[in-house]
Specification:
It comes from Rhinopithecimicrobium faecis. This is DUF4157 domain-containing protein. Keywords: Membrane, Transmembrane, Transmembrane helix. This protein is mainly alpha-helical. The protein has one domain. It is about 50% helix and about 10% strand. The chain contains six helices and three strands. Strands 1-3-2 form a three-stranded mixed β-sheet, with helices on both faces. A hairpin with a 2-residue loop joins strand 2 and strand 3. Helix 2 packs across helix 3 and helix 2 runs antiparallel to helix 5. The radius of gyration is 14 Å and the shape is globular. The protein binds zinc ion. Zinc ion (ZN) binds next to helix 2 and helix 5.
Length: about 120
């Protein structure tokens, strides 16, 4: 997975809120030192897997749609973001560096109804 270090593009795509963002097939990082953050890279790789199984464009549409729904639900940007099913899965498994090797396809579906953060 190609990694691009760009503070400007990472800020732009994440509305200034993230250290990293996945724009398939790229992982954008805010700074060079984040290349060594294995948990962060694993989190972004989980998003790459999700995007690939949803054929990329639908992943981003569904992501934004669910974010809108969560924003109505929680009325809080951070809580809405953390509760998008794709984020729930990625945050839940980001510390498990072997997760992607055994992850079942479309596993993010299980996180649509998981308990909120
Ligand atoms: Zn994420």
């Amino acid at each position: 997975m190609p990694i691009i270090v760009s503070k400007i593009w990472t800020s732009l795509f994440s509305l200034g809120r993230a250290n990293a963002i996945t724009i398939f097939p790229f992982i954008l990082l805010r700074s060079e030192k984040l290349r060594h953050d294995r948990v962060l890279i694993n989190h972004e790789r989980i998003h790459l897997a999700q995007a690939l199984e949803l054929l990329i464009v639908p992943f981003y549409l569904f992501y934004l749609l669910e974010f809108g729904v969560r924003l109505l639900q929680y009325r809080d940007f951070q809580r809405a973001y953390r509760n998008i099913s794709f984020e729930r899965e990625a945050f839940f498994w980001e510390h498990d560096l072997s997760y992607l090797g055994r992850r079942k396809r479309w596993n993010f579906r299980r996180y649509l109804v998981k308990k909120a953060y």
